[in-house]
Amino acid sequence: MKLPIHPTWLFLSMTLAVCAPAVPCELTDFQSLAEESPHGVTLASAERVDDAGGYCLLEGVIANADDGESRIRFRFRFPDAAAWNGRFLMGGNGGSAGRFQRDHLSLLALELGYATGQTDTGHVQSSSEDWVVKELADGTVVPNHVAIEDFGHRSVHLTTVVGKQFAEGYYARAPDHSYFRGCSTGGRQGLMAMQRYPGDFDGIIAGAPVFSPARMIVAGLWTTQQVARLIAEDQPLAGEQLDLLQDAVLDACDAIDGVEDQIIDDPRQCRVDPGILQCSESESPPQCLTDSQVEFVRTIYDGPVTTSGERIYPGLLHGGEYGRGMGVGGWARFTAGECATQEE
């Protein structure tokens, strides 16, 4: 049964809608916070945006308290107070950064009620790594230590500190919890935050972290060497063989976590000897693996080591061996030997 609306309640609701104060989103609303910040904050713009439920978009620059030479650009999005879940989420970067990245993820978090932060990590990348060095007045080229340190760890930390301060000023209460989410370079940023600034976040998602870059590059070259040897023997793994290997891994490890869902919850618990797929006298590829291919797979799982047995970098984990059937990714990108002709 539909209840009648009393005229008094209708009048009050209309009055409240008309008289409700506008959500503050002017530079003047944040100016005192910027002036009080010890990190050298300069505001650039503040804009009310009606998308994603409505939010305040604030951008500016952090100079840092150590030498004041940084140019760490930040971008904050503050949802309306009624939609805010009381949490602050800092987004990570990718590659060499140099700009605000992964806007779509920040907007998704915004729709879930998070106040969000982003940074360009302290430099604007206009060409290949030109920010890593700088030229002095006498023409000498030297490392740009300020930009390197900002990229390495300082930018995410300061953007987070300033972001939480501005969120507290905007909502008149501090965030209940603060989180970081990043992948690749963002994953490395998450690991750096854990080690250098453990008080910044209550939780960190550090996906595919690029850690120990020098060792990672050596491991990549080593993997290329293993693939080259296999190709030299005219035995590159075909997509069907990769799928065969993937199926064997899933059969052995899918249920370890108690759920058979084609997902290996923790690949570190999975151990599969590719020898179970070795061709018998009556078999031939791609229905099985040759002796050389079995040894190759074992080597890739083990990862590179020095002549003295020191581990250089972890080997590839079980669970990502699939061929082309699942789209981008998998071992097909570096084992089939068809980079120049691979179909899209």
Describe this protein with a few key phrases.
two-stranded antiparallel ribbon; disordered C terminus; seven-stranded mixed beta sheet; 9 helices; 344 residues; 9 strands; single chain
Draw up the topology in text.
Layout: H1 7-19, H2 27-36, E1 41-49, E2 55-62, E3 72-79, E4 87-91, H3 103-111, E5 115-119, E6 133-135, E7 141-143, H4 145-171, E8 177-183, H5 185-196, E9 203-207, H6 213-232, H7 239-253, H8 291-302, H9 332-335
Short précis:
It contains 9 helices and 9 strands. The protein is of the alpha/beta class and 344 residues long.
Tally of helical segments? 9
How many beta-strand segments?
A: 9
The helix/strand series, from N terminus to C terminus, equals: HHEEEEHEEEHEHEHHHH
Residue fraction in strands? 15-25%
Shape: elongated
Largest beta sheet, briefly? 7 strands, mixed
Are there runs of 5+ residues with pLDDT below 50, and where?
1-22, 338-344
Residue share in helix: 25-40%
**Strand adjacency order, main sheet:** 1-2-3-5-4-8-9
For the terminal residues, how far apart are their CA atoms?
A: 58 Å
Mean pLDDT score: 88
Radius of gyration: 27 Å
Global structural class:
alpha/beta
